[in-house]
Give the backbone structure.
Amino acid sequence: MDTVSTPTQEHTELAKSLAAQGVEYAVGGFIDITGRSKSKLVPIAHLPNLLAGSERYTPRGMGDLGQMTPNEDECVALPDASTLRICPWDRRFAWFAADLMYGGTTPFAHCTRSILKRQVELAADEGVSLNLGVEVELFAFKPESIDRADGYLVPMSKSGELDPTPAYDIEVGMDAMPFLEPMARYLEETGFGLFSFDTEGGDAQYEFDFTYAPALEMADRLAFFRLMAKQVAKQAGLLVTFMPKPYTDAWGSGAHFNMSLEDIDTGQNLFRDPDDERGKGWSKTAYSFIAGIVRHARAIAAVATPTVNSYKRLAPRLSDGSVSWAPTHAAYGDNNRSCMLRLPRNRPAIENRGVDSAANTYITAAFMLAAGLEGVRLGLDPGDPVEDLTYDWTGDADVVRLPRTLLEAIEAFSEDPLVREVFPAPFVDAYVDMKCAEWNDYHRQVGEWERRKYLLAF
């Protein structure tokens, strides 16, 4: 079978080493628009060929992006050998993150990893790199929940139904250890640098926090994390979902981005400055980065909150009337968790609370990096930080409201000139078409709420 490059002796030795460790199969996972890892399964003896570009795909239509046709050219998946991880839940498998390339040389327009790599390279040309930490939230629930009429996701133990919330409860966490313990062990084994995990505000909802990394490395981690969480949950008799708002009364699942710029030559964090005129310890670079993200916040929402369901989370309040803790305005604040962007006091990073668990990390990070650096280049200033509880603002507030629906976000995405600088034109066209179709399909459905509200009222 032809390969893009000649298989190397180094990769032959790697295959032998992995086989000696019990690995039987390798996958070169390219990442679709939903963040899922896709690959053929390759016997470990053929790993050198896989790394040299032996596996070809017709990838359009994966994750609903683009229209798959039988006459289009194939792409080659080129795994990045530095991303190797033996899957600790099933050590027969070794996983690599891969780029999709036409002819093995030209990035495929819909390859989300290649989109981020390009923005990382452009940032490097300016002497900076983006470090990224992501706070991952998910629901792990009993499979019989699927058949419940109310949509409630049943936690693995009765204690997980603690009222008003199981958040941070130690007993609930201990009772969930059949899922949480192997997750913690595997995250450590695969180099995530896990430093905490906990029960979140929703029943059957959990959060994992681990060490930040360069943006591309973090995006690769998250692709692997999604695969791992689903497989580990099945071994514990559970299912995992990254759906942002899985039922009406649920808390939402976020994926807060914690971003900082680093000087490539010195390794210095560029977001701290003890001489900050506002007295908060942040640099002009940090403020300009914030202003750039705020400037493009409505368009960023199309990738950071990418589903119809995402906007059920981006609401001021939960169904019980309590505040949602999810942002509704493109504002920034000094440790103000009601704002989209928060300046935390315990780390030199800007936290974007507007990203949810359905976001593809690669394209979301790419767009936010480009927006932030535009703000830095233009010397933009975001004004003073917001101290108010933003959920109490009315339409008169002098701050941009985040989109209320996926349609609003896609319209902003279509109109933002930065979008076509970050994303290839075929990607933009296909993404807009896909998301408009998603919105139209949702909008034409008549739901149970509407029937109860209107059926006998007119």
